[in-house]
Amino acid sequence: MDRIVKNIWMVVCLLLSSNMLYSQRIVYTINDGWRFQKGSRFEAQKQTCDDSLWEVVSIPHTWNEKDADDEVAGFYRGPAWYRKQLYIDKSQEGRRAIIYFEGANQEVQLYLNEQFVGEHKGGYTRFCFDITSKLRYGQENLLAVCVNNAYNPNIPPLSADFTFFGGIYRDVYLQFMDPVHIATSDYASSGVYLRTPEVNKTAASVEITTLLTNELPQTTEVIIENIIYDADGKEIKKTNMDVRLVSGETRANLSKKLKIDSPHLWDIDDPYRYMVYTRIFDKGKSVLLDEVITPLGFRWFEFDPEKGFFLNGKWRKLMGTARHQDYFQKGNALRDELHVRDVLLLKEMGGNFLRVSHYPQDPVIMEMCDKLGIVTSVEIPVVNAVTETEEFLTNSVEMAKEMVRQDFNRPSVMIWGYMNEIFLRRPYTEGKQLEDYYHFTEKVARTLEATIRKEDPSRYTMMAYHNAPRFYEAAHLTEIPMIQGWNLYQGWYEPDINEFQRLLDRAHKMYKGKVLIVTEYGPGVDPRVHSYQPERFDFSQEYGLIYHKHYLDEMMKRPFVAGSSLWNLNDFYSESRVDAVPHVNNKGILGLDREVKDTYLFYKTALIRRPILAIGNREWKARGGVVNTEQNECVQSVPVFSNAEEVELFVNNKSLGKKKTESGYALFDVPFVNGENQLEALAVAGDTQLHDMLRIHFQLVSSQLKDKTLPFTEINVMLGSPRYFEDRVANVAWIPEQEYKPGSWGFVGGTPYRRKTGFGTMLGSDIDICGTDMNPVFQTQRVGIESFKADVPDGEYSVSLYWAELDSDKKKEALIYNLGADSEQTLVGNRSFGISINGITVVDDFNVARDYGYARAAIKKFVVTVKDGKGLSIDFHKKEGETILNAIRIYRNY
Ligand code: GCB
Ligand code: CA
After folding, report:
1. Confidence band (pLDDT; 50, 70, 90) for 827?
2. Ligand nearest to the CA of residue 421, numbered in listed order
3. Which of 45, 239, 326, 576 could form a disulfide with 111, with the two C-beta atoms 3.0–4.6 Å apart?
């Protein structure tokens, strides 16, 4: 007999002989083959509704992944229907059937076989419904779910800097269980609650509370058995409890306390977990009715306002990130694997803290933090503003209860949060209305604080403020939570980066006795942008590095900073944003697709204890620059990240020597040659030899365009800009402008465009440019330019001139925290100039705003023949207003 068959036979024999019957839970997803349609008009709960032409989708699903990414402002916010025929076989008859949602944004109404089952409000918490009474066995059942992501003034969040993707965007399950079962009705919690009232090195106790339901028509007597296993599966402790439940009864007070000597603790470096098996047996113990397994971690922790955070008695600085749950072109509809990957990336960076923000996330995120030893804070999405209604308050409190009960057993969770920058969008500026608003917000805060403290006295509470303490003080919000979270952006929204540390010291002094965590900080970094003159708002990788280095240094110097969660682990979608990448907040240290930015490598080097070495600028594969050595090379600096003392870099097999690392990296002046370049880094850390390699394509531009050793092919120049941009779609390297010198190329006349902001001016603009996915190429500009000259050899050229009108006649609001409040822009329309190429007028009256509108990409390609060694001269003739040019591409046809 085949071995497998033999094994199966043995198991069957065993089961029969042990006399034990199983009646356990069955849990599986029903993610696939849903019919989907936007709109509300169809009464899709009815059998008669024809869905044959509806789209077929799989869950996780959102209906906004494309329209929240396109050029049209806004995204669909309204109702939509999901429909599915569900065949349930007869074997489940007589059992309880539950449908369980991990999350759907944001209001849900569920129908089964045309009957209303129930509804749920709130887009980020889990919920479930008992559908037993409406289910038909051995037949198809019509499941219809109406999901609505329209603005609802009574459901938080009302506004926030992230896109409210609608849909059933997390897994959906069916669960079948015995009528006597561990209850699912308590805010979709697991029905088992673990509390660890005493934990120290020598002893720990765990109180296991089971919520039990009897849905039989008669009274029943059962046994609850709890067994604790260690991580190797060895039984450590066991208890039994006899319970009698009348029909329809749910008991919540079924608790047992167990003691464990010398517990193996859950810690950041050793996230050890025991397993608690909670089993329900019939009285004779012959049938296992239900079973829930709960991981159990023993740890104790404390936040000290002066000294910071202690885990199991050991001081730890909590260093990590916040995280949003979306991904490139997928919106928030992510498979579990993508969530898992994010937590792995955080761990790999050496992070030990995750701010699960601004809302509870997929259960696998929490599971991973438990498994990997990452301390977490979880919060409900009460962001930016409140609505002064009891319903808003009630919904917020319900969310808080869901949050706490659903992730109650997680050893990784140490903080519950509520309210993020709640006064960012105050609807009133003064008077009685503002007073009332303060009062109401305080009431919401106090109620949430009390609710959470009552639900779970074992953890800390936290609220995050923006840099406007006077508002929070006016409403007493700085007093209410146990931990103050500060979201700080000095050196980004505010000009002076040194204000960061002053602010920390002020807050520490001002709010004596309060624990301080830097809950957010970060600059926007478009991974495609680089600069050797980095500055605020340029979105360059290099400014990102300067900013993060400053913040990390200052936080490390201050023990009272218990921890920090930089903003953000990943780039994320925010519909109202108009930065380098439209609708995207680029403050991630990883890209939307989790590409590694230099800032990620910087943290990895700073935080991780094992030896690491990584060449920076990793994703800058199409690079370019102008010859700046005698040897026909272009020297550009490249960071090499390492926690070794020194590193050596080889370029095309030549050593550039060794360099000492400082703050985790060394900058090498790398001489790039035209075409392929190979970078190889070596370092030694202790006994470990480290090695890294990177290949880079470099487009070298000669400084003498008629030079035959480096024949001219093309130049791509951004005007009014010291920045480099990588067009990753076409692999084209854009380089900064330079002033014209004979024999070479460059601009004549004019000044870089600077935009006024609430705090001085910035180079270039941050408005979204329509009609392009290369905003940085259009966001800078030379104003008053007279000519662009290039002394190219004779031949035929395609000369493309790039424009976007950046000036509008309406002033933009001050940039600071100006999230989602962009005013409509109207046209200037008064700029007109002529263009001639090599003396021939090609356009006489060019008006960008008139012809294309405001902030729209316009490219004109001219085919030009260069003769008699005269090169190219593109001249701009001012008529009205100033001449402008945003970028130029000169490409040699032949
Ligand atoms: C904040 C908010 C966060 C934003 C961030 C930003 O303070 O809490 O939701 O995304 O600033 O990037 O402006
Ligand atoms: Ca999931």
Report:
1. very low
2. 1
3. 45
